[in-house]
Structure prediction request, 521 residues.
Amino acid sequence: MVLRTVASSAAILVGLAVAGALAGPTWDPVPITDHLRPAASSTAIGGTEAGAADGRVHPPGTFAVRETPVSIHLDGATVGGLLREPVGAGDGLAGMVFVHGAGTGKASSAFVAQATQIASAGVVTLVPDKRLDTYTTWRRDYVTMADDYLRSVDVLRDVPEVDPARVGVYGESEGAWIVPIMQAKDPSVAFTVLVSAPVVEPRQQAAFAVDNYLRNTNVPQQVFRAIPRAVGIQLPTGLLDYADFDVRPWLERQTAPVLVAYGTGDPSMPIEQGTRQIIADTAVGGTAAPVTVRFYEGANHGLRVDGTLVPQFPRDVAAWVQGLPETATAQPRIAGAQPQQLYLASPVPRPRWWGNGDIIIGAVLGGVALLLVGPLVWGTSALLRRLTAVGRGALRGRRTAHLARGVGPVLAGLGAGSVVTTAALVLYLRAVARLALNYKQDDLVVQAGWIGVRLLGLATVVCAALLIGRVRDVLTERRAGDHEAVVAKGWPAHLTVWAVLVGALSLLLWLTYWGVFQLGI
Prediction:
């Protein structure tokens, strides 16, 4: 009995592991061996001598800053904004519009340090509110968003002390996908500043970021297989279409100078690959856009260290903007701390099956629903039988529907085990996500939690093996002449068995898709 259960469990585990492997894809990022080498460790911007001599270039803190709320009229909407002007800086000033990343939206709380410090150096800054009626988790149109932000450029050009020919755009993170579109659509945009720019497609960037976070969290190797299976799924038409947005054709149309800034402590961006790609793409067009690159030691995605904006960053941006055109081609072109991107952000392989998000979600919801239907039908029919038996004494004690001895407990174990394991996996992935996003490690959660999920899966498989063994015994008894030997009798029993079997199988396949039954440790 024990050996038979062990053999059946092993066979089921191998079958699930093979199914998970065939589902594909695997995850094997390519390491980077040829790293960028900054020409100087200082991030100070070259070519500012002429600007300093004629009074164009000033450091942050030179001027007091006046803040003025403004309204920006878009097609079908009006958003607010916050204009910051250096008091007493004179006329003919450079201007800069800020474009939000995915984590910001309100002018009152976004880019406060950057916009204020750069304005205090003599650059007029405008931070508009992000338009949110056309911006959701599921749908975003970067080209349309560029049109909206260009309205802010028009507003800034109309500010009296601003030289319209010196107005440029600053984009951070997701905003760095939008800014190149703005400059391509309006070549009179004088410059672009790309901060923590993803450059690669959103789907690639997401997979790259998750990989980096998980590596720092020290998760088991099997968990990495979930990256392409989660990031590579296809959702219904129109949902997350922006995940495959390609900014490179827009970068190839750049004509204005570009300043690129990354923090070397940013795990979410391919900082070396992005730099190389921006330089290569902006050189494709007939008029190559000059590119200046700066890396800031230990700075995170927002160019902060321990929560404080790196002071050299607004200094360098202000100097570069005010010193144009001399600073656009000044040496060193690439400077700052040594970047260390470990792996390439590569195209995400697509799952060979279960690659549709509807199927993935439906498998879980459908499986749980079936596992609830079976016991519900059984319990309801049992209650009705009992009430009928009480009302009709002649039927008392008759069993019109039942399961073979020993089938009920293991069937219940199979159903409960598949649900509990699924819930445990979801909770585990949520816990790992929290650690990863906070760039922390906790071996008790990461390692012990994964072992716990897999042990629950193993217990569920053992229940399936016991059920197979019990069914085999019933069939043997029936072949031996016992015609009363049946696994299930009556439609409620049959419905319960099949509902639990199909529901459990659906959840087990879902679990193996995410690596719970992958062979190895």
Remarks:
- The first helix runs from residue 2 to 23.
